[in-house]
Amino acid sequence: MHLSSLLIAALSIYNAAPCLATKSKSPTDSQRPRSLYTFDELWNLEKKFWDEFLYPANVKQTRGNESTVFATDVQGRVDITRTFDGDELNREYIFGLFSEPSRVSLVGVPVAYSITQFSANDNIASATTVVTFNATTFGILLPVTIDTWIEFDGDGKIAQYDATFRWFEYLLDQILESVGMKINATSPTQTVAYMSDLLAKSICATHESSCKGANQQYNSTEACYDYLTKSIRFGKSYELGRNTLLCREVHEHMVPYRPDVHCSHIGPSGGSYCVDDTSYSQTVLAKYFNDSWIPYGYGKDQDIWLA
């Protein structure tokens, strides 16, 4: 082929390229989030959250009328538990749940973290963080892997988040195994019975001290203990948001903050949190988030999680 023919062919391909590009839709500027951050800024916002998550910094986040981390109308979802709406509830759950080393707790308090994976664009950051928890109840240190997607608003606060506890089934087995060794258990059943006794007594003590009057859930401490150890299951690794003892262990930590809201969660009804009200498919397909997790506005036409 002559040089002139090659040039003509190249120009034809070049001129055709814009036509090919118009076939795929690109989001307009109006679809982009109003607040865009640099990679550096999103990295610092991510680190700010984890710095505040560690004990004892997390204690401060449970106090006051307004969070320095969460937006007022924040939406949050954690795979092993439930969804959490609003600043106050999220402060109680994300920070309050892990801020009392002297209380009986499944994983204790977070004392260190390492961000091992990170990617960010626009106002969304995705990260994997290994958090070291001091499980003070059992005297063990636990590395816990947490995958997060976080969207930040114009004030640098968390507008929505989606968190997954990676390998949590393995983690729960590790806790039970460690406890079994400490008590010289001869079988997994004996370990679970020990844990059930420990957690039930703690929950019932919290009920006794915090859930009074209209907030009372059980007629007596004995009735509370019997219900928690005999009428509901201990719970599997994914059932910290279902009708289980493990779910009530989670919500026990939040009861002192607002008894009128949280006492029902440790009671027989389970409130709206410790209940068996959704199937696997309903959980996976739930329309919950207001904003797409795909930057630049892509995916809105097929994102099944958008409310």
Care to describe what's here?
The protein starts with a helix and ends in a 22-residue tail after the last helix. The chain is α+β, with helices and mostly antiparallel strands. A six-stranded mixed sheet has the order 2-1-6-5-4-3. The radius of gyration is 24 Å and the shape is globular. 39% of the residues lie in helices and 19% in strands. The protein has a domain at 33-166: Roll (Nuclear Transport Factor 2, Chain: A). It has helices at residues 3-21, 39-53, 57-61, 87-95, 168-182, 188-210, 221-231, 245-252, 259-266, 280-285; strands at 70-78, 83-85, 109-121, 124-135, 140-152, 158-166. Helix 5 (168-182) crosses helix 6 (188-210), helix 6 runs antiparallel to helix 7 (221-231) and helix 8 runs antiparallel to helix 9. The longest helix is centred in the middle third of the chain and has 23 residues, at 188-210. The protein is built from ten helices and six strands; from the N terminus they run H-H-H-E-E-H-E-E-E-E-H-H-H-H-H-H. Keywords: Signal. Residues 1-21 form the signal peptide.
Number of helices: 10
Structural class: alpha+beta
The CATH C-level name of one domain is Alpha Beta
User: Shape from CA axes?
Assistant: globular
What's the CATH topology name of one domain? Nuclear Transport Factor 2, Chain: A
Q: What is the string of SSEs from the N terminus onward?
A: HHHEEHEEEEHHHHHH
Keywords: Signal
